[in-house]
Amino acid sequence: MDVEKTEKIKELASLIKRSGSTVFFGGAGVSTESGVKDYRSEDGLYKTVKEYGVSPEVILSHDFLCEHPDIFYDFYYKFFLQSAPLPNMAHKVLAMLEERGMLDAVITQNIDGLHQSAGSKKVYELHGTTERYYCNKCGAPFSRCDVVRLKGKVPHCALCGGIVRPEVVLYGEGLPDATVRGAVGAISSCELLIIGGTSLAVYPAAGFIEYFRGQSIVLINMQETPYDSYASLIFRDKIGEVFSEVIKLI
């Protein structure tokens, strides 16, 4: 590890130890290290245009689910349910920090549930989760297992026959009010905001950063973001690698 990166690692560890309130805001880059595909990467889900003739945004929309549930679930099963990814070092370190009282909350744009799998308790899932399901007609709850065992077939409610859908915010739907309030409250009241694995280009989630009124913003992302000028510390590295070194100093 070069001297500059070593010093930045030390500075981040120091910021976390001194902060009275720290929040982590993460995007797809947090989970790609677990093998989860990124919509916008070169080998991501945009390749599905060739197979389905439409973009992932169209398939993963409320209207498409209602009109073409068979295609929706064929796509959804292939990309979200065929394998169960495991938490990586970034997820694990964030859970450790929360357990030690050094992290107040995780705000994530991801829907894979990996933060909870790693042990995080206070997680605001802006876009919902692939771990829970419910009937679109009567609201009856269903589990991931109920849907996985159908292997891409459309799941129907045993009570009313309605289509079972994931508790995910589909395109064309608004973010959950309670989740938004919790996330905004956490960001607006923290001293240190660590942002990782996100281009901060997806709205409305990226706009949440504007509510920050604390002392320091740390950015960990492989590419530049529109908020780089607001950060006191920037890493162009994988989040898991950064956190693996930081936790050694805390």
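Above is the first protein from milestone M3; the second protein from the same milestone is given next.
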Amino acid sequence: MNLLIDSGNSLIKWALVENEAFIAEDRCSTDSVSSLHDLWKNHENPARVIVANVAGERVASEIRKAVSILWQLDAEFIVSSQSCCGLTNSYHKPEQLGVDRWMAMVAAYQMTQNSVIVVDCGTAVTVDLVNEKGLFVGGVIMPGLSTAFQCLRTETDAVEEISSINSDASSVAQSTEEGVAAGVLLGLAGGVERVVREHSLLVDKTAAVLITGGDAEKIMPHLTIPVDFQADLVLQGLRIVALQRLKTKD
């Protein structure tokens, strides 16, 4: 059994995996990383702990500490590479590609075995293209819902009382709160669609669009393109990498 961890800027998600199947999943706020010891103390001992971390060294250190104390294991931190599980990385410096993006693409390409566009809706929204040969062609990074919203709250006194954004939006909003929510949601949805259209022109076959991340279900109602929601692409990518590493050792 392996413990897989997707450590993001806002959330830390994890899954216990046995025989390639997820048998338990949970999450906590990244701000609560110091509570991982208590959250994990009743788990069965994993054979390995495999991590995709984009939340910085402080969070990585807390994960290492909890894993070491609980199970006397060294957490294995995945980094983006030139190639992995049938994918080729086109970044000039492959290690600079966010490992969460890389793992999501690994999973998406394994699922489709064809051209695929991965939309990951987290603190940032990324839109990445993998062609039919498994080449990560490139992608874009834009502010996510919370990031854009917090920017408006910080810089604009009139919206400082707005507390959250749900999936409702109208282009004819009749209050400041509704106008901000609509502007952020519709603007992001439009940006995603623009990039997806441009990506689609770069591949010979119609590319599937897989969408994931904590804000995916808020953005999806405002997309006019077909998308396939996959809740845990990063964890699925880690599962695939763990399996490949096991085969390599054998």
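Note on the second protein: The radius of gyration is 19 Å.
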